[in-house]
Fold this sequence. Notes:
Keywords: Metal-binding, Zinc. The protein is mainly beta. It is about 0% helix and about 55% strand.
Amino acid sequence: MEAVQLYASQCFLGEGPYWHAIRNSFFWVDIESGKLFEYPMDKGKVNTWKFEQRITLVVEGKADHLILALDQKIARFNLKTENLEWIASIEDIPGNRLNDGKCDAKGRLWVGSMSKSFDKGAGAFYSLDADLKIQKYLDQITISNGMAWTHDNKTLYYIDSPTQKVNAYHFDLESGNIQFDRNAIDIPNSLGTPDGMCIDVEGKLWIAHYGGSGIYRWDPLTGKLMEKVSLPVPHVTSCAFGGENLDTLLVTTARENLNEAQLRKFPFSGDVFVIQTKTKGYLPNASCF
């Protein structure tokens, strides 16, 4: 397997890859620039939108809407009219912003927060349900990042990046409750820091390693590294399965924390890549609101 450049997005902090099957498109964001990208697989013409706030995640909403996280709030964005409707304020903590997020099989949005200055333990992990009720599940989080559910919806895997761990939580789909089960994976500092992730049909986790120049495939039942797909950039931020057969992995990367000499050495930093895998993922869950 190899990573192939899909689009020269040159994101400062590319994140949030999402496959929108109805539109046959990959979406992703550039957090710090407030920019949303759409790459239609059948057209190849990239659509972009610019927002005044930092944008940290994108998931499918109802009808022609996307659900976005902007700074500390959640909004509904109409792709046809480009109307932005605020629907929830997750936090009101000076210096914090939201980060990675996904929907579970009930359509609840799970999203974490972090300090913009990376203060230890300043963030938390929340869900937002169909009634727009906010529930906090974890606190003392530093950089809330990747999450993935097993196909039976009984386990949630979750990353707080500086811990260098992937934790497994018992998950109750009906109530949304989580309970710590175990530390599933310990990632050596030498391999970079775990960032975004997704899960394949074999139950293996594909994790973007920030500072680790690749996507790493891990077995969460044994904690063992299975394989690495190298990228020509140091800071790999997230990944998501998509494409017609759900066997194409979209990978986001970042230019942040690289000096001019490093950017000359790694000019593709901030671009998005695709990896044609030997396995498949699942259709992402859309929002219930």
